[in-house]
Amino acid sequence: MSITAGIDVGSTYTKAIVLEGDSVIGMAMKATGFKLTEVSEAMFDAAIADAGISREEVQYTIATGYGRHQCKVKDLAVTDLTAAARGAHFFFPATRTVLDIGGQTMKATKIDESARVKSFRLNDKCAAGTGAFLEKTARYMGFTTEEIGGLMDTSKEHVTISGVCAVFAESEVINHLSQGTSPADIMQGSADSLSARSVQLLKRVKAEPEYTLIGGLLRWPRMVDTIAGQLDAEVNAPAGEMVQYTGAVGAALLGRIRLNKLAEKDAVEQTA
């Protein structure tokens, strides 16, 4: 059975996955930082150590994400849209639209039944449309990123954060705090604002069900529920950490496809 690896060098986190067939046998994740080559190699080594194998046993490695070209241990690089589509299709084969919300970008992608990208839209020009918005809101109120999910879970009222820009939205956060609004409700209001932006992006790509949500922000179940509510539709999200590893999984799956094509090519050449 083939062993392939996928390395997703994202703007916020770098993830690596090792697959044996369709089974995850190793994984690793760390904040990306500024040394992209080093962190991608470190996560590759950590994932194969988690799998209990050596580098030599990995037959093909594909890198994806914004830092994919800085990854030196790859055999091939693919776009994050392509890898995310393949990963989402792996977890939910009926997926036709993928929404990926990361720390610095938001992407909506329509795919066909074979997980090929048909069209996409990006929102990466303003922090109010990315995970950075929620992180900034949390930090301003004295909370860490890890506490965002807990804050949303304890919210009792939804407050309006309507700013179309992160700077203006931050002013609204300050105003709500001055009026005694609870941090939990402000955080949920920020999540509502971000969700509204995601729904607008989905409309721009002419999204169709099934919808699959992936990316770091979707590790908080309340965020999944908020988007589903604003979209007024059922949505999928890979379980647990896999929601963050979807792109890496897709890259590893594409590695297996590439490996099979190379084997077929060799077989044809040998019989020619």
Outline, from the CA principal axes? elongated
Question: How are strands sequenced across the largest beta sheet?
Answer: 3-2-1-4-5
CATH topology of the largest domain: Nucleotidyltransferase, domain 5
Distance between the termini: 26 Å
- Biggest pleated sheet: 5 strands, mixed
Assembly state here? single chain
Return the CATH architecture of the largest domain. 2-Layer Sandwich
> What structural class do the secondary elements suggest?
alpha/beta
Record field, number of beta strands: 10
Order of helices and strands: EEEHEEHEEEHHHHEHEH
- Rg to the nearest angstrom? 20 Å
The portion of residues forming beta strands comes to 15-25%
CATH superfamily of the largest domain: ATPase, nucleotide binding domain
Which range best describes the helical content: under 10%, 10-25%, 25-40%, 40-55%, 55-70% or over 70%? 40-55%
Number of domains: 2
CATH class of the largest domain: Alpha Beta
Look at the structure and give the mean pLDDT.
91
Q: State the helix count.
A: 8
Residue windows where pLDDT falls under 50 for at least 5 positions = none
